[in-house]
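Q: Got a minute? One more chain.
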Amino acid sequence: MAKYRIKQIRSKIGCNKRQVATLEALGLRKVSQVVEHDARPEILGMINAVKHLVSFEEIK
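A: Always. Here it is, folded:
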């Protein structure tokens, strides 16, 4: 199964509560923090909700 490497590139200051909660659910708490998740539909939806705050790449 494919995985995604997700890195927070912008601060969550000024974002609405839903976006902050999404970052927390992904496991991102600080700028430049990197996490890896499986490419499941739930994770892809969370990435799409905060795509302006994170960068991501598919890893094998």
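A: Helices lie at 17-26, 41-49.
Q: Perfect, thanks.
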